[in-house]
Amino acid sequence: MHISFTGRRVLIAGGSRGIGRSIALGFAAAGAHVAICARGEARLRQTADELRNLGSTVHESVCDLADGAAVVDWVEAAADALGGIDVLVNNASGFGRNDDEAGWGASIDVDLMATVRASRTALPWLERSRGSIVHISSISGLAPSVRTPPYGAIKAALIQYTMTQAAALASKGVRVNCVAPGSVEFPGGVWDEAKRNNPALYERILKGIPSGRMGRPEEIANVVLFLASDLASWVTGQTIAADGGQMFG
């Protein structure tokens, strides 16, 4: 089955590296016009150039997604640049690791509230296009998360929010789904860092994955593209774990 997004307008919050970059590249390769945002300008511009090389119309913006006004500005500017919105992907994470004010604040501000604000701002365009929203949660939101309590709790909130949004928006033709990745490794990412600096943790997690390896960003992107595509036209309110069986390890 072929997935095409020719001419569709796709916004990816947190789209410059890792999973977000792979999602953006996947949509561009499928013919979409793509808007991405991120805090780091250098990687943002590099990814934007990669997207243009695939023939995509691209809008990139440096944006701190913890800043509510900046989220609204980015969505509105991206919609204006692309001529509307067909798909919104909320991928960014503050990755609150520690059970303290800073950890909780990072996860709430970026993982949760940026998602809420981007969705709310994009909704008028999504209703017109009968579009789709895909949130990126984590398997940490599906089980206890002792090492990263804020991260796990807020990712669980995203799963619940997915169901609530889907129920509220179904009559308007807007579908909302969620992907819960397992441990995904890419250069400069959390598990790449752990492999170098905390090999005991890396090996312990790796041994718990029945597939015998960490995931790749493009494997998460493939699930996102499916959920946003016409092939999933009757799928809404769902969370799909993409984890190589890690939940069962």
From TrEMBL:
Organism superkingdom: Bacteria
Molecular function via GO: oxidoreductase activity, acting on the CH-OH group of donors, NAD or NADP as acceptor
Annotated InterPro entries: NAD(P)-bd_dom_sf (IPR036291), SDR_fam (IPR002347)
GO BP terms, alphabetized: fatty acid elongation
Entry-linked Gene3D superfamilies: NAD(P)-binding Rossmann-like Domain
SUPFAM superfamilies: NAD(P)-binding Rossmann-fold domains
Family: Belongs to the short-chain dehydrogenases/reductases (SDR) family.
Name of protein: SDR family oxidoreductase
Organism: Zeimonas arvi
